[in-house]
Every structure is written in structure tokens, then in C-alpha cells.
Amino acid sequence: MRTGLPSDWTTFNRRVPGTGRRLRVHCSRDDTQWAELAPAYWNDALPDIHPFRESRAARVHLGRIATEPLYFKRFLSRGASDVLKHFLRPSRAMRACIAGEALRGLGFRTPEPRCVIEAPHAGAVVESALITRAIEDTFNLYDWFHEDCGEIQEKRDLLHAYGTEIGRMHACGIFHGDMRKSNALCHTGEGPRHFYWLDNERTRVGRLSQRRRVKNLVQVNMERDGVTRTDRMRFWKAYVPAAGIDVALARALRRRVLEKTQKRWHRLGALPSSGGTGLDVN
């Protein structure tokens, strides 16, 4: 299993023009253009990149370098607690890149990394960025279920493939930090479904605890619209054999996931609009 950055990567130290801020730039030895592009990106001076999504924790741009489509995800400081955390552990961009390498080493798919940029300050790296190749000819699962579920058989096949994929991940000891459907892409071509996993900065590979297994399954099960009880059970029936769990554990796990999902829905003041939480069968 891969446990670090790609083996052919190297590190450059650069400064941001006009600010003097230091950057650590990690990239492939065969793609050292990033040593010069990183300061311009940090100064918001790269042409041909455009805002895509933004939150309190991160800002994402979509753009191109030469002809290559890329996503630029910049992890922002979330306050003083971030400084304390990052004295003790790698930056979020670095963790996401390393976790992506670990997933690919186990046969799963994530966007290919092109560069990690870190901006150290006072001994900690609170702000960082991960640049990855954009995956074309894919759709976001959240959007698909909410906007266009396609034909019934297509939906059934997708749910079966999705349940099998997550079961395989759990069988390999993978915990995804945020397994909501918005963090999974699926290719649009014919043949077996291929999934690509995003936002891997909290992903862990090792021994999968039951607490983390339940957390992932609750994240999957929280969806409200576009997913019926039958859909949820189709996912579950694909997940169980792929995860390699026996009948007794599956029954106990299903109850726990149902209980946690219901608690979260009650806390949010809503219930799914399409047939309950979906795992409440004997």
C-alpha cells in the first residue's frame, strides 16, 4: 500500500512576489513547471482559471494549464485551532494527496494529483492547495439523483455498483472522511461503473472500526430526494457481500445505521421525502 507522495515527486521552495511569503511546492520531477506556476496561483495571478465552488474551509477553481483541465483546491485557515492541529500533522492538501495515493494503490480511483502547495507560517502549514487533473466524462452522484436519474434499470445498476464499491472499500479498511454523494463521481461511458472519490483529506486506510463504518453508511443513507426505500435496500444488498460481513453483523449494523440516520434527521427537523430511511426491514 502506498503511504506517501508519489515516488517520482520532488520539492521546491519559492516565495510569493510582493508578499515574501514562503511556499513549499511538491510536484513530479517530470512536471517542474509547478515550481514557477505556484507563486502566481497563490497571488491569484494565473490566467484561465475560474471560481467553481467556495466554502468557509476551501476555495475551488477550475482551469487549464496548456491543454490539461485542472481543479485547484485551496484549503483556507479556519482559525486558531487549525494552527494547533497543524503543528502535529501534515497540511490538509498533503493529507488529501497521500490518501489519494493510498486509495489508488488499493485499486480505487481518485483524481490524479499534479501539485501540492504549502504555505508554512510560524511552524505550521494552515493554508495549502491541491491541484488535480479534472476527470472528464463523469457525473456527480448527488446531481444525478436530484436532477436526472435516467431509466429505472440504469438507476438499479448504478445503486448496485455504488453499494459494491463502498463494500469493497470497507473490506480494504478504507474510511472516507465524507462519503456524501457529492464526493463521488461516476463515469458516463458504457460498461462497468467506475467511481472517483473526492475530498480525501480525512480519508484513512487501516483497520476500519465499526464506528467509522457506521458513520460512512449514515452519510450515504442521509440523502432525501430522488432515493426510495427500495433504492436504499438495493444499495444495502450489494454492500453486504462486498464488505464481507456475515448475516448477524449485517442485521446489527443495519439497525445501528437506521438509528443514527433517524437521530440525524430529527436533529435537522426533517425526514426523507421518499419512503423513510430505507433500512428498516427484517
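the 2nd protein, sequnce then structure:
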Amino acid sequence: MGSGRILGMNGLSPLRKLRALGLELPEGFAAFPAVMLDEVAVI
């Protein structure tokens, strides 16, 4: 499974995890609203 570098969040927020993986993203990237799924369709 590789080095395990991308597995798990290790207590990081999603934005901090992406930055730890080398992606330089602006703070506004994480300012989107959360989407809650209340129903899941199985096809």
C-alpha cells in the first residue's frame, strides 16, 4: 500500500492534510459549506 503517507488524517483538518501532502491552497478553499447527506440511494 505504499509508504502510508496519504493514509489517515493524523488529527489534521482536511485543509492542513492537503497542505501536508504538498498542495498549497488558499484559506478560501476550505470556506465552502458542508454538505449533509440525509438519504443515500443504492442502485
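The chain has one domain: 1-43. The chain is about 15% helix and 0% strand.
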